[in-house]
TrEMBL record:
It is a multi-pass membrane protein. Coiled coil: none annotated. The keyword Transmembrane applies. Belongs to the cytochrome c oxidase subunit 3 family. The chain crosses the membrane at residues 13-32, 44-64, 84-108, 129-147. Residues 1-148 form the Heme-copper oxidase subunit III family profile domain. This is Heme-copper oxidase subunit III family profile domain-containing protein. Its main location: membrane. Signal peptide: none annotated. It comes from marine metagenome. The lineage of its organism: unclassified sequences, metagenomes, ecological metagenomes. GO terms for biological process: aerobic electron transport chain. InterPro entries: Cyt_c/ubiquinol_Oxase_su3, Cyt_c_oxidase-like_su3, Cyt_c_oxidase_su3-like_sf, Cyt_c_oxidase_su3_a-hlx. It is found in: Membrane. Keywords: Membrane, Transmembrane, Transmembrane helix.
Amino acid sequence: MAYGDWRVLPEPAMLWVNTFILFLSSVFFQKAKNFSNHYDFRGARIYLILAGLLTLIFLFGQIVVWKTLVSYGYFLSSNPSFAFFYLLTGLHMVHLLGGLSVWSFSVYKTFNEDISVNELRSTISLSTMYWHFLLIVWIFLFGLLLAT
């Protein structure tokens, strides 16, 4: 950017690791959906749990990124570009936390034998679609960060 108050934010390597972790969690959601489409809800449960664990690792990784940036002196109030980074990644984290609540409901449903098969498949399918959306949003945000 050509503006004096818009400084470039460094790219901690952990952002790349986090991107891979989020991608892998999306892959695991897709595997869970594939298992549920074949009526293998035990397999779906395993991949749902793995996807959720990876998401928690991603969230922890984001906190590590924030702490790293703060330790280098890149504070929220220091610069508009830093504020946008913290705001956008923070909003993404909020959406992931909301997704984890739906995820936990999906995992719960895989243990509940009173749930209809179609309802369970639908829940897993919608959770997977939401996760893919969050991955696309993250890739867009990450690309935006790299471009600025």
